[in-house]
Amino acid sequence: MLLLWLFIAVVLINTAYFLLFSKFAFLQPTTLEKKGSFPVSIIVCAKNEAKNLKKNIPYWLEQDYPNFELILINDASTDDTQKIIEAFAENDNRIHTVNIENNEAFWSNKKYSLTLGIKRAVNKRMLFTDADCRPASKNWLSLMTHELSDETELILGYGAHEKKKGVLNRLIRFETLMTALQYFSYAKQGMPYMGVGRNIAYTSKLFYDNRGFMSHMDIPSGDDDLFVNEAASKWNTSISFHEDAFTYSEPKRSFFQWFSQKRRHITTAKHYKPKHRFLLATYYLSNLLFWILAALCFVFADWKMVLGVFIFRIALQYIFIGSGAKTLKEKDLTPYLPLLELFLVLFQLTIFITNSISKPKRWK
Q1: pLDDT at 338
Q2: Same structural domain, 237 and 279
Q3: Which of 78, 199, 208, 339 could form a disulfide with 247 if both were Cys (CB 3.0 to 4.6 A apart)?
């Protein structure tokens, strides 16, 4: 009987988090009626991204916006990244470049490179994305930056992955969906804790007021989430989740590539503020315990009662996570939600164990 009560308690914790997610899951995005006119700097840091830059620079340049510049940063690349940047810059005076030479490579991590790009920018409103990301529409820049002001200094966006065939693609997109559902919901609750560098906007004042990335410059990852965790508040942060404001990037093509990427990303979570670490850890543990206790209870407790609790919890998942998936245009994932969650729980557990044994590699 004790086992069953533990199972019920875990499901109640799950329910509390689902209610938190409702802060975002049922929202409808606002439409942009009037485009901003203030100047904006789009900033992109690229390391060995010649192919992606050639494909995506035209998307950034065709934004339907009257006044913007594009800052392209070559982070000591060894491929043709700099040649591609220079070729585009020769034909468009909106492009400005930052080239980090090999003799600076001992300094070079993404945060250092971004800092140089931010210093090069002439506009106080800045929009960031990655070299492998294309905007969903020509209104991306407008939708992501029109709220930036002296009061709203940080905008969190959604960095989606392209839809492809196969199980791996669904797993990657589900992990991305759950990450976004959490940081959007926490932000709506007045507790912003992270964002993604694939799609984020903030002001230069916010950057300099928080001394940029100085407090975590020695940590390989975290130019996005650690900066947000430090600089964001319920007063200065907003979200942008209109489908035209998304960015799309190519997902990893092998499980090993994705696993290596997530190993690196997850190392930053231990540097979050204590309250955020507690809430995120509790959510993960409650999900892990749900599946463990469900299996045990079906064996050792009254299976009819266990089945009722199990169905109740899965139904809530379909309601709240399913609604969030619809909002973020990932509705095709909804039929597989329980299986995807179970995999993600085991996947993250494997990462925690692996990272405790060896450190992940640095950014590229």
Answers
A1: 97
A2: no
A3: 199
